[in-house]
């Protein structure tokens, strides 16, 4: 990212609360330099979209934000990611603590092979909440929040694998909300869904941003344009442009962004 | 210009189809051969052993007189042996599998351990018998006891259980682990609540098949010095005992015709025990089987 852009995004963010501040993040998969000097700030209660062609590092970046990237062997990082002022790349920051604040929804719906109820209470249970009444309330609140309550309220004890793909993904969002996180990371959450389910998830995002800060990786540029407040364009592991969504799609300042958005490559 | 001459293709059709039929019968024949041998074996055992296969046979101690002899001590001994082998081999085997799959870093040392475990599965059982004799019977002075035999048999089936459990753990989709980690679960919570429940059918199936092997093994027990004739039951795991295969071995080595029939009846008991174990394995697999 060029200096003027960095300046600009700093100015835009004046007076807003920052959830994530990424300063000079570099990441290597073995010898492969996958993220180069990333500079990116995420504002509270906004939807931040990350777009870019396959292999540009957008999934890698979002997985770094809750350190899921550590599951891949041979990953090295430098630089810092401040979450609410604390560097999460510092090994003394317990990753389990980070992930209770930062939830994640994955590309493929991945409910547990358990009942719908058990799926939602999984997070609260592992954090030590055992009171049945509270768990019941969490289940209803989360499923309502994920706009799936009316569809499943009569079959909470049935296996989650009986749900359709779109319902499973909303269940996964509910499961993520059940731990009452501060941020929700979404890694292409609609890429495995049909258009109607996609629409439902997108509508849901508009509701969710009232209570959560959302960072979403998407392949679908229309989706980024529809749902996000800010958009970051990644290319070859670099942030080419990061600004207001309305600006990036109407008047991008970098030629490469324009080429990508108008479909000339990627 | 066409590169394929269709009249040649048609000419080639007939041999292709007849080969198709030929191989089908070849494979059917291979299957039938095994079934036939098994059928003959079962027929001989049942026709010989059936006259002795009654309640008296189950309740009686071994005896010099064939009409009085029974499998009581051997059957109870086999159950004692299982009571030691099942917990020891399952706890050690599943624990090792979890460590290798979930905790151990993939490096030269784990690869070396892995190769050795697979190799151990192919080591002749008599070698395990010699190991048991040296370590458990002599060095630890356990004698030809239930415990010594149980630990030897546990070592014998351990590689099979480890490999089967590893397979089961590995086949749990990584998306499920990610979902758990993503919610802030620790590694242990993920193993306990996600990985093991999903892997349990595979682990138990492998475990029970390994137990069926332990129940039929004779060679290592001969080396351990288990008695061929025993007229009392073990009271603790430190007592001397005998098992079904030893009893059958004893009877087959007797000159009298009647004892061979007794051996056949003993084999029937052993087969029923194996069948029971395998049925349990199948039932467990069907009950817990899930698709992902």
TrEMBL record, chain A:
Output the CDD domains linked to this UniProt entry.
Answer: ABC_PstB_phosphate_transporter
Could you confirm whether the keyword Nucleus appears in this record?
Answer: no
One MF term in the entry's GO annotations? ATP binding
The ABC transporter domain, residue ranges = 20-261
| Name of the protein in question | Phosphate transport system ATP-binding protein
The record's section on SUPFAM superfamilies has: P-loop containing nucleoside triphosphate hydrolases
Concerning InterPro entries, the annotation shows: AAA+_ATPase, ABC_transporter-like_ATP-bd, ABC_transporter-like_CS, P-loop_NTPase, PstB-like
Cite the PANTHER family for this sequence.
Answer: ABC TRANSPORTER I FAMILY MEMBER 17
Q: Which UniProt keywords apply?
A: ATP-binding, Nucleotide-binding, Transport
| NCBIfam families recorded | 3a0107s01c2
Q: What is the lineage of its organism?
A: Bacteria, Bacillati, Bacillota, Bacilli, Bacillales
Q: Name one Pfam family in it.
A: ABC_tran
UniProtKB/TrEMBL annotation, chain B:
Regions crossing the membrane: 21-46, 71-100, 120-141, 190-212, 218-238, 259-284
InterPro entries for this protein: MetI-like, MetI-like_sf, Phosphate_PstA
Q: Which domain of life is it from?
A: Bacteria
Pfam families for the chain = BPD_transp_1 (PF00528)
Q: Which SUPFAM superfamilies match?
A: MetI-like (SSF161098)
Question: Can the keyword Cell membrane be found in this entry's annotation?
Answer: yes
Q: Where is the ABC transmembrane type-1 domain?
A: 75-281
Compartments where found = Cell membrane
Task: Tell me the keywords, alphabetical order.
Answer: Cell membrane, Membrane, Transmembrane, Transmembrane helix, Transport
Record's keyword annotation contains Cell membrane: yes
Membrane association type: Multi-pass membrane protein
What is the similarity comment for this entry? Belongs to the binding-protein-dependent transport system permease family. CysTW subfamily.
Q: Which NCBIfam families match?
A: 3a0107s02c (TIGR00974)
PANTHER family, sorted:
PHOSPHATE TRANSPORT SYSTEM PERMEASE PROTEIN PSTA (PTHR43470:SF5), PHOSPHATE TRANSPORT SYSTEM PERMEASE PROTEIN PSTA-RELATED (PTHR43470)
**Descriptive protein name:** Phosphate transport system permease protein PstA
Q: Which organism is it from?
A: Peribacillus deserti
Q: What is the lineage of its organism?
A: Bacteria, Bacillati, Bacillota, Bacilli, Bacillales
